């Protein structure tokens, strides 16, 4: 195979895993990212990487030891609390098994970025459009320039600009919004809240609403107020300006009125503003192969945040790279990747529905059982 011209669109974990997998085998690749720099925005909460999927992908691209150096197995702890009393309804303590240790999303992205050759990622290059003709992909960028590649890999997330080149499917709003805020230095400044939430994740829910936390590294805690069965335009309907921190805080405290003070303090004492994150998903779908373009991660199979997306994204990236390395013909490599990825992503979408139903059963659900259900469905898809 002649040296292929490959562009990865998006410097998230899927795209970076693919780039890393290509580079360790000497295949050139360029990553284009719309954000201005690596530090343009905070990358989000923590991820649990599963042994058969996310961790297997990191092994395949030679980064497992680096992952182990920063991952936090103690953060596998999960607490479910009574919203009115804060009593522990279900407590899954972390053990020594390295099945699904947590890592900050930002740490994982940094680990992947640091593994790439200098200048691999071109920052501040938003994509406008991709068109494919005779197996080539022409990419139009926001600065008015165009470039031609043998393969464009869409790793640009939920609202992918590459996806229309292969599929007309669009994300669908799930009816759920996560309102995000955070607490810093919780162990020093709020030891009673640190004790309440534990070392990993905590959730409490009732009446179509939840308060959840994720403990990141360095005493940073992400807090989510989750509102279910709510219109997408709920801030406008409620007359809440999301840039007015005090107004959002007051609205949420009213929504959770009567809940235990410790849980309310997670909202009352938050250090940042509030970010409204509507949850979307892609329907289970596949597409007819289009020479010159393919998709990874959320661009291919966006799911609600149930611990599936990052594992799928890493697996996609590592496996596309492996397929390209293993085949003499680039188009045949992409076909081989899609033949595995598409049934797997459809199975994951269906498994996510099962996971949501299990989680709705209440505090007796074993999170490890949920993780293993997902991995079984994804790795053994029924076509």
UniProtKB/TrEMBL annotation:
Top-rank taxon: Bacteria
SUPFAM superfamilies linked: FAD/NAD(P)-binding domain
Positions contributing to FAD binding: 48, 105, 298
Claim: Translocase is one of the keywords in the record: no
Keywords, alphabetical: Cytoplasm, FAD, Flavoprotein, Monooxygenase, NADP, Nucleotide-binding, Oxidoreductase
Purpose of the protein: An FAD-requiring monooxygenase active on some tetracycline antibiotic derivatives, which leads to their inactivation. Hydroxylates carbon 11a of tetracycline and some analogs.
Entry domain remark: Consists of an N-terminal FAD-binding domain with a Rossman fold and a C-terminal substrate-binding domain.
Family: Belongs to the aromatic-ring hydroxylase family. TetX subfamily.
HAMAP family per UniProt: TetX_monooxygenase
Protein name in UniProt: Flavin-dependent monooxygenase
Organism: Kutzneria chonburiensis
Biological classification of the source: Bacteria, Bacillati, Actinomycetota, Actinomycetes, Pseudonocardiales
């Amino acid at each position: 195979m002649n040296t292929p011209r490959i562009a990865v669109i998006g410097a998230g974990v899927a795209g970076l895993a693919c780039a890393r997998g290509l580079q360790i085998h000497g295949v050139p690749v360029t990553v284009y990212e719309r954000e201005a720099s690596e530090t343009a925005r905070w990358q989000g909460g923590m991820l649990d990487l599963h042994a058969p999927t996310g961790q297997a992908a990191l092994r395949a691209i030679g980064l497992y030891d680096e992952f182990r150096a920063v991952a936090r197995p103690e953060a596998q702890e999960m607490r479910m609390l009574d919203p009115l009393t804060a009593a522990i309804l279900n407590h899954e303590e972390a053990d020594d098994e390295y099945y699904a240790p947590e890592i900050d999303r930002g740490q994982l992205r940094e680990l992947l970025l640091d593994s790439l050759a200098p200048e691999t990622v071109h920052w501040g290059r938003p994509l406008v459009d991709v068109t494919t003709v005779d197996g080539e992909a022409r990419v139009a960028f926001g600065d008015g320039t165009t470039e031609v590649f043998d393969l464009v890999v869409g790793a640009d997330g939920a609202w992918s600009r590459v996806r229309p080149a292969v599929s007309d499917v669009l994300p669908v709003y799930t009816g759920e919004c996560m309102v995000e805020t955070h607490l810093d230095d919780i162990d020093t400044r709020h030891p009673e809240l640190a004790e309440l939430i534990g070392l990993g994740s905590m959730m409490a829910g009732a009446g179509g609403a939840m308060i959840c936390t994720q403990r990141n590294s360095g005493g940073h805690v992400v807090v989510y107020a989750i509102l279910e069965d709510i219109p997408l335009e709920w801030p406008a309907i409620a007359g809440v300006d999301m840039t007015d921190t005090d107004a959002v805080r007051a609205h949420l405290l009213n929504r959770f009125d009567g809940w235990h003070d410790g849980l309310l303090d997670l909202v009352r004492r938050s250090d940042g503003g509030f970010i409204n994150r509507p949850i979307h998903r892609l329907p289970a779908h596949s597409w007819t192969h289009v020479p010159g373009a393919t998709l990874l991660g959320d661009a291919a199979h966006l799911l609600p945040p149930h611990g599936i997306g990052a594992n799928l994204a890493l697996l996609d990236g590592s496996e596309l790279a492996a397929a390209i390395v293993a085949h003499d013909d680039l188009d045949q490599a992409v076909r081989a990747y899609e033949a595995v990825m598409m049934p797997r992503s459809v199975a994951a979408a269906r498994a996510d529905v099962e996971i949501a139903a299990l989680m709705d059963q209440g505090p007796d659900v074993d999170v490890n059982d949920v993780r293993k259900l997902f991995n079984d469905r994804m790795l053994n898809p029924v076509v």
